[in-house]
Amino acid sequence: MSTRSHITTHVLDSVTGRPAVKVAVVLEQRVTGGWRELAAGDTDADGRISDLGPEALPAGRYRVTFDTGSYFAARDQATFYPHVTIVFELDDEAAHYHVPLLLSPFAYSTYRGS
């Protein structure tokens, strides 16, 4: 039986109104002296990664980095943001954390999803 990760993501290309497919994503945890990579993957046909990292994580600081430059380069589109990094606090070890990204070549937005 497959279960979802403690942290998931979804990327929507807000210019086309469609999922952003094959965006490389890295999940890291803040540790003493820097960051430790926990997982990496590419968004699927629906712009999602539901298996980004383990099923459970301790409270702490995490970051998700999206390789938006490669995504736009593959579409022959210039972009101002070659990477988007979202740093957040995981404080409820029992809760699911969804970190969505609404993306365009010259702007982005995020929020705490469900």
UniProtKB/TrEMBL annotation:
Substrate binds at H10, R48, Y111. GO terms for biological process: purine nucleobase metabolic process. It holds the Pfam family Transthyretin. Keywords: Hydrolase, Purine metabolism. SMART domains: TR_THY. Residues 2-113 form the Transthyretin/hydroxyisourate hydrolase domain. It catalyses: 5-hydroxyisourate + H2O = 5-hydroxy-2-oxo-4-ureido-2,5-dihydro-1H-imidazole-5-carboxylate + H(+). One of its GO terms (molecular function) is hydroxyisourate hydrolase activity. Its EC number is 3.5.2.17. It is an enzyme of class 3 (hydrolase). Homotetramer. Catalyzes the hydrolysis of 5-hydroxyisourate (HIU) to 2-oxo-4-hydroxy-4-carboxy-5-ureidoimidazoline (OHCU). Belongs to the transthyretin family. 5-hydroxyisourate hydrolase subfamily. This is 5-hydroxyisourate hydrolase. It comes from Cryobacterium arcticum.
